[in-house]
Amino acid sequence: MRIFVIANGYPTDREPQFGCFEKDQALELVNQGHEVTLLYVDGRFRKYRRKPGITHKVENNINIYGIYWLPIVFIRIFSYKLAHKFRSFLLDLLFRHALRRQEKPDVIYAHYCYNIANAAGISRNYGIPLVGIEHWSLINQDILPAKVRYLGNIAYANADSLIAVSDALARSISTKFGYEAKVINDMVGKEFISEDIAEPANQRFRFIAIGSLIPRKGFDKLIEAFNETGLYKKNCELIIIGSGPESDNLKMLINTNKLNNFVNLAGRRTKHEIIGYLKESNAFVLSSDVETFGVVCIEAMALGVPVIATACGGPEEFINEGNGILVKNNDVRELAEAMIRMYEKRSDFDRKAIADECKIKFAPDVIAGQLVQVFEQTISKCSGK
Q1: CATH number of the domain where residue 17 is located
Q2: Are residues 114 and 42 part of one domain?
Q3: Chain mean pLDDT for the chain
Q4: What local confidence, expressed as pLDDT, does residue 49 receive?
Q5: Helix axes 332-344, 219-229, angle to 10 degrees
Q6: Are residues 277 and 300 in the same domain?
Q7: What is the predicted pLDDT for the residue at 383?
Q8: Both 133 and 35 in a single domain?
Q9: Do 18 and 167 share a domain, yes or no?
Q10: How many domains is the chain partitioned into structurally?
Q11: What does the pLDDT read at residue 296?
Q12: What is the mean pLDDT of residues 267-277?
């Protein structure tokens, strides 16, 4: 099967998280014998210089085409509708460029509603089935911004098949837009799957959290909860991996509570480095206000690390008493109590069993198999129209 993936981006040495989920899926689809081409429109604002135009490279048997013209965020300030049209124009330009070098795909597979919306015209004009997968956290918010509603209405109406990465997200799409989505969870990257599952060798009991340092990740509440536990007096530490605009605020919070020797903002790390940190951690903590699934949780679980997570729109579907503790959203006291319970009952969690359960549910071959089934069904359905 020939698959054109419409992604957010593709990881680079400078930005290793740029389109990493899309890359993981594309790699597994290639491993299963499919021909994958990945396209992305880069409309982000970055301080470093990027040359306008189309780029192309082949990596891991994937043809990767990217296009950058200017930061679309500046257009969005004036009109999100105009930004959508410009982004659609760029994607169409990129698609035609790729089509001159690649065979016409059997299916277009687009990530996030804005990419699905951008791909709608291409699907229609070329008669190619469009499968969309949604994992944008904004869809799970109680009140949707106007731009999200606008893009969602275009995307979901034009997708021949729609996938959501969690039951909670599928319910949000159904409730807010009136479209039904099949649930296929995010996959855990192959790098996180290991047969070498062992207890950490570090002397301190380590809580670890990973994510962009932005308000909705709730790292301020996590630091407050850790302070409230008093576990730092028992040789416990908290490591937060990630970078972002909240960095200075979080440093100030750490200083105010005199936790400098116990809470470490470790900054951005490579996937290989993150795996090393997780293997030496006793518990993973997700403190987000809203998520669509919680890939970082299953990455930790794949390495046998038990998880404490807020009921934020995804983790409640896979956290159980055998692999972690689920807590209320925005409740510092309950989060603190869960951290204390995890510390005191750490021997109750079997790291090997946690890893095995995770692999059965979220391994790349399992998730990719489910995706291919949807692609085949969609192609068959559209060929009969």
Answers
A1: 3.40.50.2000
A2: yes
A3: 94
A4: 83
A5: 60
A6: yes
A7: 86
A8: yes
A9: yes
A10: 2
A11: 95
A12: 92
Q: Look at residue 326 and give its three-state secondary structure.
A: strand
Question: How far is residue 109's CA from residue 379's CA, in Å, rounded to a whole number?
Answer: 12
Residues 221 and 329 in one domain: yes
What are 260's two structure tokens? 């400098």
Residues 160 and 267 grouped into a single domain: no
Q: Is the pTM of this model over 0.85?
A: yes
Spatial contact of 280 and 201, defined as CB atoms under 8 Å apart = yes
Which of 293, 295, 297 shows the shortest CA–CA distance to 308? 297
Which residue is it, tokens 């038990």? 306
Looking at residue 383, its amino acid is S
If you ran DSSP here, which 8-state letter would residue 217 be given? G
Can you read off the two tokens belonging to residue 170? 């599928």
Query: What is the average per-residue pLDDT within 213-219?
Result: 96
Summarised one tens digit per residue, pLDDT across range 319-361 is 999 999 999 999 999 999 999 999 999 999 999 999 999 999 9
Q: Please list, in sequence order, all residues whose beta carbon lies within 8 angstroms of the beta carbon of residue 159, skipping any fewer than 6 positions away.
A: 110, 116, 120, 130, 131, 132
Angstrom distance (rounded) from CA 104 to CA 126: 9
Q: Is the dihedral of CA 316, 350, 348, 229 positive or negative?
A: negative
- Are residue 175 and residue 230 in the same domain, yes or no? no
Task: Encode pLDDT of 84-117 as tens digits.
Answer: 999 999 999 999 999 999 999 999 999 999 999 9
Instruction: Verify that 369 and 348 share a domain, yes or no.
Output: no
The residue ranking higher by pLDDT, 90 or 202, is 90
CB atoms within 10 A of CB 224: 18
Query: Can you tell me the distance from the alpha carbon of 302 to that of 351, in angstroms, rounded to the nearest whole number?
Result: 9
Specify burial of residue 39 (Cβ count, 10 A radius: 0-12, 13-18, 19+). buried
The residue segments making up the domain with residue 347 are 190-361
